């Protein structure tokens, strides 16, 4: 007789993942560049169930249009609920060339955070979208780093 308790399922539904993606503006895109992984922070918008970011020419652009597949990740912490969460999208990236598509993205107020020209629009169309949410351990306020966001509920 097996009396072990199965581990809890922390998985998020696809709709929950999209809702969390809608609440964020900053994520990380993971690409293979020169045969090794690179991770780049990007600000983004959602456009027709796809993730879109802007970039200049260079390593990120080259990796995005040549690496197959790419990954995109966001995560967060809810101090009030004492939960952490993460969403991961995997799929192919494509360069937007049609001006109407760029205009649709511009209407969503996608503006680069970093100064300089960012004329290239990259869309990541997820083929897989997964996420998880879990309750975090309460901190030991006396031994936890002052910058630990969990402390805010106890101070």
> Which of globular, elongated, flat, extended, rod-shaped describes the shape?
globular
- Major sheet size, sense and barrel closure: 7 strands, antiparallel
Low-confidence stretches: none
**Taking strands numbered 1, 2, ... along the chain, how are they ordered across the largest sheet?**
2-1-5-6-7-4-3
Portion in helices: 10-25%
Strand share of the residues? 35-45%
Mean pLDDT across all amino acids: 88
Query: How many whole angstroms does the radius of gyration measure?
Result: 18 Å
How many β-strands, per DSSP? 7
Count every helix, treating DSSP H or I runs of 4 or more residues as helices: 3
Distance between the termini: 47 Å
Structural class: alpha+beta
Word description of this protein:
- The protein has 155 residues and is of the alpha+beta class.
- It contains three helices and seven strands, in the order αββββαββαβ.
- The chain has a seven-stranded antiparallel beta sheet.
- It is globular, with a radius of gyration of 18 Å.
Brief account:
This protein is of the alpha+beta class and 155 residues long. 17% of the residues lie in helices and 40% in strands. The chain is built from 3 helices and 7 strands.
What attributes characterize this protein structure?
155 residues, 3 helices, seven-stranded antiparallel sheet
Task: Indicate the topology.
Layout: H1 14-23, E1 26-33, E2 36-43, E3 45-46, E4 51-55, H2 59-66, E5 70-78, E6 83-96, H3 99-106, E7 120-135
Antiparallel strand pairs: 1-2, 1-5, 3-4, 4-7, 5-6, 6-7
